[in-house]
Design goal:
It is built from 4 helices and 12 strands; from the N terminus they run βαββαββββααβββββ. The chain is of the alpha+beta class. The radius of gyration is 17 Å and the shape is globular. The structure holds biotin. Biotin binds next to α1, β3, β6 and β7.
Length: 235
């Protein structure tokens, strides 16, 4: 295994911790925390991180862009969740893993840039294993335990995710097959605006190719999609 695992009881964000290690030259490390006090999500959101979850981050040097790395991590995590818990899951572009219509896991990939080249990326993965979720998210998020899955030791799941990530070069077809919004009418949220479209295709770099209501096609590689008619951050 390329990565040495470091366990923390608590930290603000494992992404931040892994980045400080990587900046000091320690890149073959995966940081796991029992809880985070300032877990970060995409688009500046917070990620609730009480005890009962797996919160892990590791550095990756890669010529792949952020979306492809996130996609690779999503496929690896979905496979690991299935083998460790028995739960089947789908992926909501670009970074969320869903089980039975609710979010079980979020992934945040952050680039550390040297000019216009990413020197390395930090991939951060949060999986809800057991425990109570707050009332703000309990309608849209779930845990392995609430879905009736086998609850694994956090470290075991982390190791399985890392193994899958390291061997998962051919993730594109599986990423596509697991997409829960592909082919559906969606609302896209990007840079403070929202618009309706059909999610027609995945581009090779794992962007979402949308058909707009005027017939134009638009590829997006940031932002968020939800099934049309659902509120922001719902499936
Ligand atoms: C999202 O849902 O928008 C992404 C959530 C990513 C959460 C994980 S938990 C481990 C790592 N540390 C963080 O602060 N965030 C990621």
């Amino acid at each position: 295994m390329k990565y040495r695992i470091i366990h923390l009881d608590e930290t603000d964000s494992t992404n931040k911790y892994a980045r400080s290690l990587a900046d000091a030259g320690e890149r073959d490390v995966c940081v796991i925390a029992r809880r985070q006090t300032m877990g970060r999500g995409r688009l500046g959101r917070t990620f609730e991180s009480p005890e009962g979850g797996l919160y892990m981050s590791f550095a990756v040097s890669s010529d792949d862009g952020k979306d492809r790395l996130t996609a690779r991590a999503a496929v690896a995590t979905a496979r690991a969740i299935e083998s460790c818990t028995g739960l089947s899951s789908g992926i909501k572009w670009v970074n969320d893993i869903f089980v039975n219509g609710k979010k079980l896991c979020g992934i945040l990939t952050e680039g550390v840039w040297n000019g216009d080249k990413a020197e390395y990326f930090i991939v951060g993965i949060g999986v809800n294993l057991y425990g109570e979720l707050s009332s703000e998210i309990s309608d849209i998020a779930t845990t392995v335990s609430d879905e009736g899955g086998l609850v694994p030791e956090a470290e075991l799941l982390a190791k399985r995710i890392l193994e899958e990530f390291l061997r998962c070069d051919d993730f594109f077809e599986e990423y596509k097959d697991r997409q829960i919004l592909l082919g559906h009418e969606v609302t896209a949220y990007r840079g403070g605006e929202s618009f309706n479209a059909v999610f027609e295709e995945l581009s090779d770099d794992c962007g979402a190719v949308l058909r707009l209501s005027d017939g134009e096609r638009l590829k997006i590689s940031s932002g968020e999609l939800s099934l049309r008619g659902r509120a922001y951050d719902e499936k």
